[in-house]
Amino acid sequence: MKQYIAKIFSSDFLRKISWNLLGYALPVIVAIIMIPVVMRHTGLERFGVLTLIIVLIGSMTVFDFGITRSVTNSVRKYLDEKNDRAMLTVVKTGWLMITCVLLVISALFWFKSQWIATHFFNVSNQEIRDEIAASMKVVAFSLPFVIAQTIFVGVMEAFGAFKKISLGKSPFSILMYLVPMIISFYTPNLFYITLSLCLLRCIMAVAFYLMMCSEIRKVTPISLMSIAPTRHIALELAKYGGWVSVGNIIAPIMLYIDRFFVAGIVGASVFAYYTTPYDVVSRLAIVAVSVCGVLFPMLVTKIAQDVRSANSYFNKVMLGIFAILIIPAVAGIFLSKWFLSVWINPDFAEHSWIIFSMFLVGYLLHGLIQPAFVWIQASGKPWIIACCEIIDLSMYVIYLPWMTHHYGIIGAASAWNFRMLLNLVVLHILRYVLYKRDLRKSTGLQPAM
Predict the structure, then answer these.
(1) What global pTM score does this model have?
(2) What is the DSSP letter of 121?
(3) Where are the chain's structural domains?
(4) What digits encode the pLDDT tens for the residues 279-291?
């Protein structure tokens, strides 16, 4: 049994997961220290708006239209085939496709900044609205860099360079919280805080471009700049990425839409009681994200070559994620009120400890969903994910506002948890069906008609 587990969780696999986890875990530690300080200096309403701006920057990855995951998939495939020129063409073509789209999106953010500040954020204070409008122009400038970085990281994941990714993210992860905290000592103005965040994201994109190029040079002397994008590769990326893009557009909407309903229905005055527990607990997602970031390129290869081995990795990953997440989930439920009292203050804890506990359960379910999600994409069936998420969103926008209107922030958290449970059941059933189909193919047995 020990030999079997050692074979499944090879030292290389665990080492990649560990480096990936470190890259995601470090900002969590820093955030726990920095968030109360920033909240104190900016005030509850400005801090709530700041969390929305950060969400907005992060959710711009929806505009990669699935190209990032498609690039990772194709780069891994061409690396296995030792086709260096095709691999580089994928990188260049995917990068160009995303840049063209983001320039259009950036222009809209720039020219519609005042409209976004007025209609997108539920803020009555005119001064804060003006700060938001100025911040949107800064966000518009940074968007092409933010999305380009996801391409560079996706390529490095295909190369298995998780240690380099982690080391590259770590200093920026610290600065993303440290710099806004320092600025908040001098001014609570959202423009300057947003400016610092966006400049850091631009510098980060340049750093990851240089790291990606160093990985490419290890396998081929061909320069990325000498490669021209091709129509054939663009169609290949669009075919796979088109379905992924549906999920990429819907997933962040599903993940963050509750915040905007809460802000619009219950108001910004109690918004932080909902978003702060969410922001802390959502960091548990780093466990599944770290593991699945390593799992995806491996499954792309193994599902096609040895589906039994792929399934073994999947089962062990599921067990590992559950074993890690169940501990903070159970402990947090009993200690959430005490933790929030010490971390922020007793009054804040009184209003938000129930929300904190509910999200702990929800993110345990969320973590267990991700391996099934990754398997379906790696098996070449991203359209399944897209169809599920369209149905999921159609249902969520009905029961989420109803529950929020009738039960406030507790209702919103309950709706979020119910969605996680439903996703867990559906995606694992679909994943199992795909596994059985691929297993029959690999053994030469056809399903009965």
Answers:
(1) 0.61
(2) S
(3) 22-229, 232-442
(4) 777 777 777 777 7
